[in-house]
Amino acid sequence: MTEFLRRHNLLFSSLFLVVCSFQLMSFSLENRNFPRFGARLVTSILAPVQEFHHELFQSLRGAWSHYVWLLTVEEERNGLLLQVKQLEEKNSTLIEFERENERLRSLLNFSQETGHRGVVASVVGHDPSNWLRMITIDKGEKDGISPGLAVVDGHAIVGQVTVVTNSSAKVLLLTDHLSAIDAIVQSSRAPGIAEGMSSGDLSLKFVSKEDTVMINDRVIASGLDGVYPKGMLIGVVTAVNTEVSGQFQSVDVLPRANFRHLETVLVLLPSADSPLGAIESPTPEKMELGEK
Amino acid sequence: MMRLLFIFVLVSLVGLFIQGTMVRPVSPSAVAPDFLLVLVIYLALHFPGVWGLVGAYSLGLAQDFASGEYVGPSAAGMVVAFYFAVVVSKKVYAENAIAVGLLVMIASVMKSLTYALVFEIFLGINVLITNEVKLWSLSIPVMFVEALFSGLIAPMVMRILHVTRKQVTVR
């Protein structure tokens, strides 16, 4: 018997423990506090570890979701950067429109204030040679342009139309050495001839030493040449030299027109009472009739 | 001996912690592998005597107490699983990973069946067929999934336990 029990001690021990389990189950059904007491004991041991693990897991999860969020943010950022670039391009275009609007408005105001009719033209080219200061505009015969017409930029004189084609024209700038404008000093009414110099400035020649010319005096067109309307601004006196020999003083004039940033000009059409107006210059109506 | 006992208690707590914590954040309803059962099978393979049986019973009791509702079902299940593993290991060589995995899977099913039997006897509830039991959502698919997971992790856990035991006994 003992040998039998010894040989099968594991089996009997297992059966015994199973019976004990049944007893414990029965006891726990009758005494509900019994299993809960044990649960409190086990929980008190495991809870701190579980809390630490929970916080660690939450941190890792947060870090991961933040990483994923960052990836999303980067994608969004790239999209926004592209959008910004597109908006910047659009803004640049709008700024251009705004500036062109300002230029055109300036020309329009000039035309309204002075009462001169004109044709707005854009500067599309410059003379390729280094000897002449000329620009090419995108208006020509079909727009009513003819040689000899004055060109302004809304503030001051730019030059004179010299060569005209059907759809374009060349303008000799007043800073060219071939250009000469009959001018007067606005304050002292001293007459002179404004000629272009190779430096890009103007020289007011044939001003008598008896006339008073001061620096910052405005130099305007006299209107006697029949090209530029009287009173139109040419430039401002920057230097006066009366020590030169002869009866005339040397006067340097800074042109008012901004030749370096010339984009839009106004070609003044001849008025009825101007010498050029007497010359039959082609008008749109006449050109239409001519075409017919 | 005391050192082994200490290691045993520590591993039991780790097993309880892993089983009740690590899988749940991933999915609250996910089926967790039975780490404690793997430990019981390890005891069966390396300590196939009465002390091993007592250790298995203790693990079952710990699992019951951790739940806090009924004491006895897991304990009985662990005893049955332990005895089954001892009997099988005496007949079949169960040292390689596949054999261990299969052994754990079958032992898990036997433990679940014992569990269900205890509930049937004491509560009159068939936990395998119906879904009426809210506390222990045991069902046949869950039983097999748990067995599968337990079998899959068993070789790795056994290896860790074996290495740990060697280091402890060498020192």
Please give a structural write-up.
The complex is a heterodimer of chains A (292) and B (171). Chain A is α+β, with helices and mostly antiparallel strands and 292 residues long. Chain A has 5 helices and 12 strands. In chain A, the strands form 2 sheets. Chain A has a 6-stranded antiparallel β-barrel with strand order 1-2-5-4-3-12. A 6-stranded antiparallel barrel of chain A has the order 6-7-8-11-10-9. In chain A, a hairpin with a 5-residue loop joins strand 7 (191-196) and strand 8 (202-208). The relative contact order of chain A is 0.11. In chain B, helix 2 (35-46) crosses helix 4 (73-91), helix 2 packs across helix 6 and helix 5 (97-123) packs across helix 6 (140-170). Residues 24-28 and 131-137 of chain B have low confidence and may be disordered. Chains A and B meet through helix 2 and helix 3 of A and helix 1, helix 3, helix 4 and helix 5 of B.
Spatial extent as radius of gyration of chain B: 15 Å
Distance between the termini of chain B: 12 Å
Q: How far apart, in Å, are the first and last alpha carbons of chain A?
A: 141 Å
Low-confidence stretches of chain B: 24-28, 131-137
Helix content of chain A: 40-55%
Mean pLDDT of chain A, as a whole number? Answer: 81
Could you list the spans of chain A in which at least 5 consecutive residues all have pLDDT below 50?
274-292
Number of H/I helices of chain A: 5
Question: How many beta strands in the DSSP annotation of chain B?
Answer: 0
**Principal-axis shape of chain B:** globular
Count every helix of chain B, treating DSSP H or I runs of 4 or more residues as helices: 6
